[in-house]
């Protein structure tokens, strides 16, 4: 007689479960795998057989062509400059405001705080036309300023940091005030160092938002030199949209995704936590 | 006990009687120090907030009351006629319809798939983090990358889907060129792109449900379905509401996928509201009318935005 012990049965069930889950996950990854692989195959090989899921024969020619004969490197640098400036400025501006809301009993605080939070309700589709006209009047279209400034100091960041600052025990600050420290010192030397985890979380989301921003750069930048990569890639489809340039355009697309993918693998835990903070 | 600046200010002002101008200023400073410093710390944020939120809201309304044409720079006050024009604008009506179709397709599906994936990876086995990572990974990609990748996937000649169809003996579908298939294709891409978010929210919700509830119910002889129906689903109520609000708001603003993959076509079957506002404003340069429609979009979303605000601000306590 053929019998299976309960322990064996459990193991078998687990094995089948993992196999099925792996299969689904593999299917989920096919678009990524397929396009990344083809970016590493010669265009001629892609034309012969476009179904390959592995980079065989392996070649760097598409990536080299993309770097040397397109504006992708320039756009990449634009995106780096814009994204990092936006994150740095956003974190600074939000922290300063949050410190005021969390720690300074100024007149009008009970009115200003909810007003700032209400800003979360305004989608940027509702404001991009007036902001465009303002930028046009200032002659800031096609500059980094237009790409950086409008997204700085968002209400959600202020809210998140205010909550976090409120949770920091006051004893530390009181000792500093006793020693004659002012608020600026307390902010820089006590609150900010203690807030590195929440600043990291907020910074990651600000970075992803900045790097992946699409609609605003699409309208505020028309000069190709100044495009961030997310929008630049879209322009590439006019010159490399056909099948002949399949490998090159995928190399460009994934080049544009490198920073966010690196960020993702580095900061996975913070990203998960950030999403959880948003809902609890 | 307390030596906060507020307290020191009180002490100071209590101890003085008559004063010179310098002392008066000193006293004024100390008494209003909190307010002055408070606004000093707040000022950068307030500046951005006023410049890029408060002013644009009012300026946008002002623009919406004009025939505002950038190319010829005409600017004629037309009252509410931009708003009156909206109901009879066929493209507006069809783009509203398309947006609703997208929302009704993507919303429930992302809740369903997000929940299924969350349940699937919420096991005490080793390596579940890897699956979570894989399902979330597409969410960090930009809309252009996702759009370009799926343009290739859907291509009826050499796309990977076409290969799959052919190997099954079927004729490959012309996904993005067929009026009846284009929007479903956009929905599928959006699900692939965005399902990581509901998955993570559901996962967090699942991990918040006390394990004892399940154990107690199992002792009472409850089956798997009963556990799911009476413990898991009620335990995820907040997650459901949060995801519903967020995905609906997101769906109403869908733009990038459509712009990259179909440009609104074929025949306007994937033109969404934001796409229409974008085209009206930055392709045909009717900024007044575009602004009026942006306002309508804002109002359509207002109720949900209010719930979103309450959900997000009531949460972190």
TrEMBL record, chain A:
- Tell whether Transmembrane helix is among the UniProt keywords: yes
Q: PROSITE patterns from the entry?
A: ABC_TM1
Parts of the chain that traverse the membrane: 15-34, 111-132, 144-165, 186-211, 249-267
Show which residues constitute the signal peptide.
Answer: none
Q: Which family does it belong to?
A: Belongs to the binding-protein-dependent transport system permease family.
Q: Which GO terms describe its biological process?
A: transmembrane transport
Q: Which Pfam families match?
A: BPD_transp_1
List the subcellular locations.
Cell membrane
Membrane-topology descriptor: Multi-pass membrane protein
Looking at the UniProt record for this protein, which Gene Ontology cellular component terms does it annotate, in alphabetical order?
Answer: plasma membrane
Ranges for domain ABC transmembrane type-1 come to 76-267
Q: Which UniProt keywords apply?
A: Cell membrane, Membrane, Transmembrane, Transmembrane helix, Transport
This chain's protein is named Carbohydrate ABC transporter permease
Main location group: membrane
Domain of life, source organism: Bacteria
**Family matches, as InterPro entries:** MetI-like, MetI-like_sf
From TrEMBL, chain B:
Subcellular location(s) per record: Cell membrane
The record's GO CC annotations read: plasma membrane
GO BP terms: namely: transmembrane transport
Q: Where are the transmembrane segments?
A: 46-65, 100-121, 133-151, 181-204, 239-260, 287-307
Where is this protein chiefly located? membrane
Topology in the membrane?
Multi-pass membrane protein
Provide this UniProt record's keywords sorted from A to Z: Cell membrane, Membrane, Transmembrane, Transmembrane helix, Transport
In this protein, which residues make up the domain named ABC transmembrane type-1?
96-308
* Gene3D superfamilies for this protein: MetI-like
Q: Which InterPro entries match?
A: ABC_transporter_permease, MetI-like, MetI-like_sf
User: Which family does the UniProt entry place this protein in?
Assistant: Belongs to the binding-protein-dependent transport system permease family.
What name has this protein been given in UniProt?
Sugar ABC transporter permease
| Annotated source species | Caldilinea aerophila
Q: What is the lineage of its organism?
A: Bacteria, Bacillati, Chloroflexota, Caldilineae, Caldilineales
């Amino acid at each position: 007689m053929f019998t299976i012990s309960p322990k064996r049965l459990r193991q078998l069930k687990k094995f089948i479960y993992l196999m099925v889950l792996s299969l689904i996950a593999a299917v989920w990854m096919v678009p990524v795998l397929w396009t990344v692989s083809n970016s590493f195959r010669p265009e001629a090989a892609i034309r012969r057989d476009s179904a390959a899921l592995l980079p065989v024969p392996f070649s760097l020619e598409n990536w080299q062509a993309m770097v040397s004969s397109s504006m992708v490197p320039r756009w990449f640098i634009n995106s780096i400059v814009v994204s990092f400036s936006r994150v740095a400025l956003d974190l600074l501006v939000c922290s300063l405001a949050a410190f005021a809301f969390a720690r300074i009993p100024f007149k009008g605080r009970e009115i200003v705080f909810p007003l700032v939070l209400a800003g979360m309700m305004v989608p940027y589709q509702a404001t991009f036309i007036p902001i465009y006209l303002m930028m046009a009047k200032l002659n800031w279209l096609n500059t980094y300023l237009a790409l950086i400034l409008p997204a700085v100091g968002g209400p959600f960041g202020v809210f998140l940091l205010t909550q976090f600052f409120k949770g920091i025990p006051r004893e530390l600050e009181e000792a500093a005030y006793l020693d004659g420290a002012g608020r600026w010192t307390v902010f820089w030397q006590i609150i900010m160092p203690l807030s590195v985890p929440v600043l990291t979380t907020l910074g990651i989301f600000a970075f992803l938002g900045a790097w992946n921003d699409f609609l605003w750069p699409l309208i505020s930048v028309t000069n190709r030199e100044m495009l961030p990569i997310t929008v630049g890639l879209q322009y590439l489809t006019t010159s490399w949209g056909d099948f002949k340039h399949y490998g090159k355009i995928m190399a460009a697309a994934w080049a544009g995704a490198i920073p966010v993918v690196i960020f993702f693998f580095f900061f996975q835990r913070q990203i998960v936590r950030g999403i959880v903070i948003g809902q609890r | 006990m307390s030596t906060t600046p507020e307290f020191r200010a009180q002490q100071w002002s209590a101890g003085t009687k008559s004063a010179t101008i310098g002392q008066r200023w000193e006293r004024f400073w100390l008494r209003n120090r909190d307010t002055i410093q408070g606004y000093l710390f707040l000022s950068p944020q307030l500046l951005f907030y006023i410049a890029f939120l408060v002013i644009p809201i009012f300026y946008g309304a002002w623009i919406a009351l004009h025939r505002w044409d950038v190319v010829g720079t005409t600017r004629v006050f037309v009252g509410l006629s931009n708003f009156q024009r909206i109901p009879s604008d066929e493209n507006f009506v069809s783009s509203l319809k398309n947006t609703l179709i997208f929302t009704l397709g993507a919303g429930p599906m992302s809740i369903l798939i997000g929940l299924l994936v969350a349940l699937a990876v919420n096991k005490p086995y080793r390596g579940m983090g890897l699956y979570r990572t894989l399902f979330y990974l597409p969410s960090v990609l930009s809309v252009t990358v996702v759009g370009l990748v799926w343009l290739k996937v859907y291509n009826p000649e050499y796309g990977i889907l076409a290969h799959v169809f052919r190997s099954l003996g079927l004729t490959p579908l012309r996904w993005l060129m067929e009026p009846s298939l284009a929007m479903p294709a956009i929905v599928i891409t959006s699900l692939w792109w965005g399902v990581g978010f509901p998955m993570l929210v559901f996962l967090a919700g699942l991990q918040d449900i006390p394990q004892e509830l399940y154990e107690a119910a199992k002792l009472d002889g409850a089956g798997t379905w009963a556990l799911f129906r009476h413990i898991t689903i009620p335990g995820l109520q907040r997650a459901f509401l949060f995801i519903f609000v967020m995905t609906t708001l997101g769906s109403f603003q869908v733009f990038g996928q459509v712009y990259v993959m179909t440009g609104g076509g074929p025949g306007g079957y994937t033109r969404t509201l934001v796409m229409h506002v974008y085209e009206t404003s930055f392709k045909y340069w009717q900024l007044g009318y575009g602004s009026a429609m942006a306002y309508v979009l804002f109002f359509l979303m207002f109720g949900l935005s209010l719930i979103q605000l309450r959900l997000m601000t009531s949460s972190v306590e």
